[in-house]
Design brief:
alpha/beta, 2,3-Dihydroxybiphenyl 1,2-Dioxygenase, domain 1, 2 domains, 3 helices, 37% strand, globular
């Protein structure tokens, strides 16, 4: 089995599309009233799926976390420490929720956290070198 991608079950599709497109720069072509959105970001499938649509499809009701979601994070990488600071400042200026301002950790990574409009945590980090998958 191979990991294909990941998705978020969202309450307000239009708001989430605008956030990931306008704040983080994801290329999203679907309209704001779409039931689900598929896109590939840097080779990874990313999905936004309406909660009610998923519940209808599976004939079940689900419980959803309110506030900041501490169960997972979406990690975004930039090449330099300066880019971490700039990406954070840009995201906050465009309406992202600040969780942790940029700081350099003892393991050598500069990192920060923001949250999307529905409370999902997003890390922006760098080891001050271009990304290399091992």
């Amino acid at each position: 089995m191979k990991l294909d991608g990941f998705g978020l079950f969202v309450e307000d599709m239009g708001r989430m599309i605008r956030f990931y497109r306008d704040v983080l720069g994801f290329e999203i072509r679907e309209s704001e009233d779409a039931g689900n959105v598929y896109l590939v970001k840097d080779g990874t499938l990313f999905l936004l799926y309406g909660r009610k649509d998923f519940e209808n499809m599976t004939s079940r009701r689900y419980e959803y976390i309110k506030g900041l979601n501490g169960h997972f994070e979406i990690a975004l990488y930039v090449d330099t420490f300066e880019e971490v600071d700039k990406a954070y400042a840009d995201a906050i200026a465009k309406g992202a929720i600040s969780v942790l301002a940029p700081e350099t950790e003892c393991w050598g990574q500069r990192t920060c956290y923001i949250a999307d409009p529905e409370g999902n945590l997003i890390e922006i980090g760098s080891f001050n070198r271009p990304f290399a998958r091992k």
